[in-house]
From TrEMBL:
Alphabetical list of Pfam families matching this protein: RVT_3, zf-RVT
Protein name: Uncharacterized protein LOC108836684
GO molecular function, one term: RNA-DNA hybrid ribonuclease activity
Gene that this sequence comes from: LOC108836684
Domain RNase H type-1: 429-546
Length: 573
């Protein structure tokens, strides 16, 4: 069924509408025949849990509605000069900001809906450092000290009104180191100095649940579900848990239908007689086939007479003392473990999902038609279906390969720039253990000739984000100093290069962008290209050489290293 996404993006749906839509989805999931009611074997809230926590990952419409409205609030926050933002400001928050706005008197339903979305947005926002004028040093969590917090107080007497901007030299954009050392402990000072303030831009908002810092409906929905279904999440994470078994069922090599069946069996929501009686139906809970034991999922699939006979004929290794009489969890765990045993023939261990499925079909055939398959037929059908499915997967994979791959797999090679452009490939090799960074770049023209290259060693570089920022800034700085006019920057940092090209879409990298923007403005033209390791191997090789004791010195040189000749010749083609 289709969701009314546009309406949900503009208005908060009434609870009755949410309830009706949820009921329609639940009916669609549990009912196999239209206009015929069936038992809803599990609460919808539990089905909305992610698969790794035992649910099916279905959407909770209230949370989805709030996440869509939060997206509109994010747009208002990011585009305060848009027509909608200016209209709302004139009506509801003329003398304050959108995040400080009140509901007001006689608000429209649209505004009340936005306030509902804003509640979610505000729980995931964080303020990033620009010029520091809006950040209080002691009350705002403005730096990453192993987690977002404000620095520890070194002195007993402090200035409670101290702003982060007071710690920054507004002319040079550098930290006032003496003031930092006066107010903070050395460990916090070292972390602060790694963060680059950008005095040209105001402090700005980021969404802390995405890498880019931009709000997405998916991350907002995740946060809303975490909050609304907190009890369900807590219960699902409690130990001991069968969520590992459910996840193994989803990872089994079989059809989606059988995966769902195994998940239902592990969740004890198969419509067997014992479960039906527990739900108030007047049925005989005893197995109709053997007439002795209660009909439970475990009994039907593992311990009933016909199940024992089928497993014995299947050649699938049985547990030493037979399948457990009471615990379906123990039995499924055994099956999943045996499916990883390399000593068992592939055609044997791959068939167990179909054995379970045909045991269930045989139970239904006996119950509703009064007939059943022979045990030999069940085993034969199971292995035949498993073989057919595996063959179909091979054909699909071969078809996909023919459509998406060239006849011969080719390693992506370096590509030449356009005429009148130069291409600067930069790379780095960083040791997290020694905190030593080797960086390099090499500039080539449209013919593939190497014009310049450089290598540099950095020390005490503690995290990957700092590595990427240092190497990019250093490369840009040297391109400017050498008077290069039109340049293509090529590297393996996809996130960083995307943030350079679309800074508004990557708020988390806005400080980095503004710190390099003066350098970018120095070029007549610039582009970014994302490279693979194979196409960027020349720059990476030079950077890696910086870790060699005899080659640790930094330099800039014309041409290219002699020892890199064959590699560059191959790149040149």
């Amino acid at each position: 069924m289709a969701f009314p996404v546009y309406a949900m993006s503009c208005f908060k749906l009434p609870k009755t509408t949410i309830s009706n839509l949820t009921s329609a989805m639940a009916d669609f999931w549990w009912h196999t025949v239209e206009h015929k009611r069936k038992i809803h074997w599990m609460r919808w809230d539990k089905l909305c849990l992610p698969r790794e926590l035992g649910g099916l990952g279905f959407k909770n419409l209230q949370c989805f509605n709030q996440a869509l409205l939060a997206k509109q609030c994010w747009r208002i926050l990011q585009s305060p000069n848009s027509l909608l933002a200016r209209l709302l400001k004139s009506r509801y928050f003329d003398s304050s900001s959108f995040l400080e706005a009140k509901m007001g008197s006689r608000p429209s339903y649209g505004w009340r809906s936005l306030m509902f979305g804003r509640d979610l947005l505000m729980t995931g926002l964080r303020k990033e450092l620009g010029n520091g004028k809006s950040l209080n040093v002691w009350t705002d969590p403005w730096c990453d000290f192993g987690g977002r917090r404000n620095p520890w107080m070194k002195n007993l007497i402090i200035d409670l009104e101290l702003k982060v901007s007071d710690l920054i030299d507004q002319e040079t954009g550098a930290w006032k180191k003496a003031l930092l050392e006066e107010n903070f402990f050395p460990a916090d000072v070292a972390i602060i100095l790694r963060k680059t303030p950008v005095v040209a831009v105001d402090d700005f908002w980021c969404w802390k649940h995405t890498k880019s810092g931009a709000y997405t409906v998916r991350s907002g929905n995740w946060l809303a579900v975490q909050d609304l279904l907190s009890e369900e999440f807590q219960e699902a994470r409690m130990q001991p848990s069968i969520n590992g078994l459910k996840e193994a069922a989803w990872n089994a090599l079989t059809t989606p239908k059988i995966k769902t069946f195994m998940w239902r069996a592990i969740s004890s929501i198969l419509p067997v007689a014992n479960e039906l009686q527990h739900r108030g139906m007047k049925v005989d809970p005893v197995c109709q086939h053997c007439g002795i034991y209660l009909e439970t999922p475990n009994h039907v699939l593992f311990t009933c007479d016909v199940a024992r006979q089928v497993w014995a004929l299947s050649n699938f290794p049985s547990p030493m003392n037979g399948f457990h009489a009471d615990s379906i969890f123990v039995n499924f765990h055994y099956l999943f473990q045996m499916s990883k045993n390399i000593r068992i023939p592939k055609e044997i261990w791959k068939g167990y999902p179909w054995i379970l499925w045909f045991l269930w079909k045989n139970r239904n055939k006996f119950l509703f038609e009064g007939s059943e398959f022979r045990a030999e037929d069940i085993v034969g059908k199971a292995y035949d279906e498993a073989a057919v499915w595996e063959e179909a997967q091979k054909l699909d994979q071969e078809g996909d390969k023919r459509e998406t791959q060239p006849a011969r797999p080719q390693v992506k090679s370096w590509s030449k720039p356009e005429r009148f452009w130069l291409k600067c490939n930069y790379g780095y090799s960083w040791s997290q253990q020694s905190k030593r960074l080797g960086a390099a770049w090499i500039v080539r023209n449209y013919k593939g000739d190497s014009l310049l290259h450089s290598r540099r060693t950095f020390v005490n570089v503690s995290d990957l984000q700092e590595v990427q920022r240092l190497v990019l800034y250093w490369s840009l700085e040297l391109m400017v100093s050498h008077g290069i006019g039109k340049v293509i920057f090529a590297g393996e940092d996809a996130t960083l290069l995307k943030a350079l090209q679309r800074p508004r879409a990557w708020p988390s990298f806005l400080s980095m962008y503004h710190s390099v923007k003066p350098l970018l403005d120095s070029f007549r033209g610039w582009k970014c290209v994302i490279e693979s390791r194979s196409s960027n191997r020349s720059a990476f090789a030079i950077a890696k050489s910086a870790h060699q004791p005899q080659w640790g010195q930094s330099y800039v040189s014309g041409g290219a290293p002699d020892w890199l000749g064959n590699l560059l010749l191959a790149d040149k083609g």
